[in-house]
Design goal:
Order of helices and strands: HHEHEHEHEHEEEEEHEEHHEEEHHEH
CATH topology of the largest domain: Aspartate Aminotransferase, domain 2
Largest sheet: 7 strands, mixed
Helix content: 25-40%
Structural class: alpha/beta
Number of helices: 12
Radius of gyration: 20 Å
Distance between the termini: 23 Å
CATH superfamily of the largest domain: Type I PLP-dependent aspartate aminotransferase-like (Major domain)
Number of domains: 2
CATH class of the largest domain: Alpha Beta
Bound molecules: pyridoxal-5'-phosphate
């Protein structure tokens, strides 16, 4: 009985019929790019985030690139982000010719630490890009205050946090915009690549629509240099078929996380990341740190021998990636991110996992970590 990080077969049993019908409806409609399915998804996802506007795009990476540009970030501007995230968060900044800078993360949550943000801001910093890593939101109230105090734009990376909340605010409610990815492994996944940006500002939304369509608001009139970043209608339809299940899926993830928490409560070798008071964590990943001195590769191999497919998100922080040489921070610059990259382990969590499997994973990990 292997335990995998996701179960697309079980998911198809639950929503496959609705998804297939939705896809066939698009094929029959002849409307393959944007169109009514995508518009419906934009309306419903904006409502989930409690913001007035959503603009659907081709991927989470495209959402970051266009989100930054729609907020007025351009070549040479500095954008402060987390060194402990999927590379896209920083890569998107560099892709538009801006410059990623970093502040270290909190060792208990792996989220951007507002105190370190304050110290890392420079006069030419134009924006802060917090990442809601693993499904828990960064401290948006503190970051909003900092952004306002320094006249900075605030773009949230919510790729892993569909439906998350913190201090009564949803993703996108306190930022100037928030981006999402619907890569198939996400809490809400498309049947391919898809992404979206939500914003409270009508003009930012209009600019996003323009940028995803070669800078055009009116057919064949190009106001600015954009790209083809539009969402496919089939992805909109798949997401519409699955969105009504998201709340229940997130709730199930939280139940399973509570089982893991209980199993590790007394352990000194397996240390779950903290959930801050006031957070609704949606557990895109359930992540623990292994105590110092434990050999993570050996633990991972031991789990794999038992058919348990754990993963490491992410084994190398952004600033130590080969492509980040141009950003220039040296090893040792962000010690918390570097230590987490060596110690984190993400355990299988998805809505179709059962308590018996969670107990098996937790038991195997505790045994390996104390061996
Ligand atoms: C934190 C984060 N940001 C950005 C992305 C990029 O999204 P996509 O793969 O849809 O381009 C991802 C996901 O892959 C992610 O996890």
């Amino acid at each position: 009985m292997d335990v995998f990080p996701l179960d697309l077969v079980a998911e198809r049993e639950e929503v496959g019929e609705a998804v297939d019908e939705a896809v066939l409806r698009v094929l029959a409609s002849g409307r393959y790019v944007l169109g009514p399915e995508v518009e419906r998804f934009e309306r419903d996802f904006a409502e989930l985030c409690r913001v007035p506007h959503a603009v659907a795009v081709a991927s989470g990476t495209e959402a970051l690139i266009l989100g930054l540009r729609a907020l007025g970030i351009g070549p040479g501007d500095k954008v402060l982000t987390s060194p402990f995230t999927f590379f896209a968060s920083a890569g998107a900044i560099a892709w538009i010719g801006a410059r990623p800078i970093f502040a270290d993360v909190d060792p208990e949550t792996a989220l951007l630490d507002p105190r370190k943000v304050e110290a890392a801001l420079t006069p030419d910093t134009k924006a802060i890009l917090p990442v809601h890593l693993y499904g828990q939101m960064a401290d948006m109230r503190a970051l909003r205050e900092q952004a306002d105090a320094h006249d900075l734009r605030l773009l949230e990376d919510g790729a892993q946090a569909h439906g998350a909340m913190r201090d009564d605010a949803s993703c996108g409610e306190l930022g100037d915009a928030c981006t999402f990815s619907f890569y198939p492994t996400k809490n809400l996944g498309a049947a391919g690549e898809a992404g979206l940006v939500v914003t409270r500002e009508a003009e930012v939304a209009a600019r996003l629509r323009e940028l995803r369509d070669h800078g055009s608001r009116e057919k064949y009139v190009h106001e600015s240099i954009g790209t083809n970043g539009r969402m496919h209608a089939i992805q909109g339809a798949v997401l519409n078929a699955k969105l009504p299940r998201l709340a229940a899926w997130n709730a199930r993830r939280a139940e399973l996380a509570a089982l893991y928490d209980a199993a590790f409560a007394d352990s000194t070798s397996v240390l779950p990341l903290a959930v801050v008071p006031g957070a609704k964590h949606v557990y895109h990943q359930y992540t623990v740190r292994l105590a110092e001195g434990l050999d993570r590769a050996k633990v991972l191999a031991g789990l794999a021998e038992r058919g348990i497919h754990a993963a490491v998100h992410y084994p190398r922080p952004v600033h130590l990636q080969p492509a980040a040489r141009a950003f220039d921070p040296a090893p040792g610059s962000y010690p918390v991110a570097e230590a987490l990259a060596e110690r984190v382990l993400c355990l299988p969590i998805h809505p179709y996992l059962d308590a018996a499997r969670v107990e098996r994973v937790a038991g195997a990990l505790l045994a390996l970590a104390s061996a």
